[in-house]
Design brief:
Blueprint lengths: L2 E2 L2 H21 L5 E7 L3 H17 L2 E7 L5 H12 L6 E4 L9 H7 L11 H9 L7 H12 L8 E5 L6 H10 L3 E5 L6 H5 L4 E4 L17 E4 L3 E2 L5 E2 L4 H4 L5 E2 L6 H18 L1
Helix pairs in contact: 1-10, 2-10, 6-7, 6-10
């Protein structure tokens, strides 16, 4: 049986550490605060926002919710962000994505002050990551690094393959693995002979957005597999980009879906918020 990497347990560990730190902050008059802005009522976004509020309440972070109608203009949204940028009581600002089609996502991300960009999406945050400066790292890749480290999986010197090149997961993931002295290959939809490349991986991180695409043909015996995908199968059960049943026969460690990477994303968002208050 492979090691099942338990994201729920590891994220709880991180939240408990943050809870203690926030209690100490409260004693010296620092009250970490996260502003969460949601435009429209996308059902998945509603679930994410609810989970973020719950995590804030557990840790002791104040959360301010701004639930705006679908018809909110880009100008109105930017005006609210600018108001929160200048509010010293707010340490982190998060705009729940996706936003409605009439709003330019990039302009919204760029209007958040980099020191309050707890999602790690601002060009300044991304630039800092690329050149190895301090700054906020997007939460899913940061969470994956914690999953590996806290499961005693060594990254240094390992052959790491990332499937997916998105700005939110694939690209920052590859840079973080490099930072940990992994040898990194990035694959994507145009990669030729994908299985040949992925079978070299000691650590395989799958963020391709295709349901159960990765079977054991793509995986080396004894590899560590991290599944970032989130889908529903034909029985309406949650599943990932990896065919868990098939792949788990040959790997040394694997993340389940649900309960693997998902909980880590919120834990690292909370970590970034506490970091912003610390600064």
């Amino acid at each position: 049986m492979p090691q099942i990497i338990d994201g729920k347990a590891i994220s709880m560990q991180i939240k408990d550490e943050l809870k203690e730190e926030v209690a100490r902050m409260h004693e010296v008059g620092i009250n970490p605060c996260l502003a969460v802005i949601q435009v429209g009522a996308d059902p998945a976004s509603c679930v994410y926002v609810r989970n973020k509020k719950k995590a804030c309440a557990y840790i002791g972070i104040e959360s301010r919710a701004f639930e705006l109608g679908e018809e909110t203009t880009q100008e109105e949204l930017i005006a609210l962000i600018q108001k929160l940028n200048s509010d010293e009581g707010v340490h982190g600002i998060l705009v729940q994505l996706p936003v409605p089609k009439h709003i330019d996502e990039d302009k919204i991300i760029q209007s958040i002050a980099p020191e309050k960009d707890v999602d790690g999406f601002h060009p300044v945050s991304v630039g800092n990551l690329c050149i190895g400066e301090k700054g906020f790292v997007s939460c899913t890749p940061a969470g994956i690094i914690q999953l590996l480290k806290r499961s005693d999986i060594k990254i240094e010197g390992k052959e790491c393959v990332v499937i997916g090149r998105s700005n939110i997961v694939g690209k920052p993931m590859s840079i973080l693995l490099l930072r940990e002295n992994g040898t990194v290959t990035i694959c994507h939809s145009r990669t030729k002979n994908l299985a040949e490349v992925t079978r070299r991986a000691d650590i395989l991180i799958v963020a391709i957005g295709k349901k159960q695409l990765i079977t054991k043909e793509y995986v080396k015996d004894g590899a560590v597999v991290i599944d970032v995908g989130m889908h529903r199968d034909e029985n309406n059960k949650l599943c990932g980009d990896v065919d868990f049943e098939d792949v788990s026969e040959i790997v040394s460690a694997i993340t389940p879906v649900p309960g693997g990477v998902g909980p880590m994303t919120i834990a690292m968002l909370m970590n970034n918020c506490v970091e912003a208050a610390r600064k």
